[in-house]
Amino acid sequence: FLDKIAPATEKLSAAGLKFLYHNHAHEFIRYGGVRPLDYLRDRTDAGKFGFLPDFYWIQYAGVSPVKFMEEYAGRADVVHLKDMRAAPEGQNRMAEIYEGNMDYGAIVGACKKAGVLWAAVEQDVCDRDPFESLKISFDNIVRSGQIAG
User: Fold this and answer.
1) Percentage of the chain with pLDDT > 90?
2) In Å, how far are 55, 96, 97, 107, 119 from 130, measured between CA atoms?
3) Residue 6 pLDDT
4) What DSSP element (H or E) covers 141?
5) What is the pTM of this model?
6) How far apart are the first and last CA of the chain?
C-alpha cells in the first residue's frame, strides 16, 4: 500500500497538500503484534502522510480516542466526530455528537492538545433525517462551547 501511494503523496506534497488516511476498526487488529495504523505512522513522513481519525471506529475497536490522540499528536490535522450509542442488543449505533456514550469533553480536549485544526461531523447512519441529525450535532457542539465555529 505504501509503495503504491508514494507517488501520490509526493505529488500532493509538491502541491502543498498532505495525504490523509481515514481509519475504521480493522486497522486496530494486531498482526504479528503490530496494529496496521501504527505501521503506517511509523513508516511515513509526517509532513506528507497524516491521519484523519474517526473516533467512532476507534472506540468501536476498543481503543481510547483520547489515548489515540496522545499517540498520534501532530499527525492528525482533521478529525471525524461521530458518537456511539450503546444498544441493548449489543449492536452499537452511530449517534449525534453528545447524544451517545462517548466522552466528547475529553476527546475534544485531547484534540486541542494534539494540535487538531479541523473537526468534521460524519454520521454514516442516522435514525432520523440526516439533515436533522447534522443540526442536532451542530447545536450540541455549539452548546458545549468546546469548539469554535
Assistant:
1) 91
2) 19, 10, 13, 23, 18
3) 95
4) helix 130-144
5) 0.91
6) 36
The H-or-E segment that residue 83 falls in is strand 83-85
The burial of 76, by beta-carbon neighbours within 10 Å (0-12 exposed, 13-18 middle, 19 or more buried), is given as buried
pLDDT digits (tens, 9 = 90+) for 107-133: 999 999 999 999 999 999 999 999 999
Residue 39, CA distances (Å) to 46, 69, 78 in order:
13, 16, 20
Q: Is residue 41 very low, low, confident or very high in pLDDT (cuts 50, 70, 90)?
A: very high
Q: Which three cell numbers stand for residue 47?
A: 509532513
Residues in the chain: 149
Phi, psi of 29 (to 5 degrees): -75, 125
Q: Which residues pair with 85 in a beta bridge?
A: 93
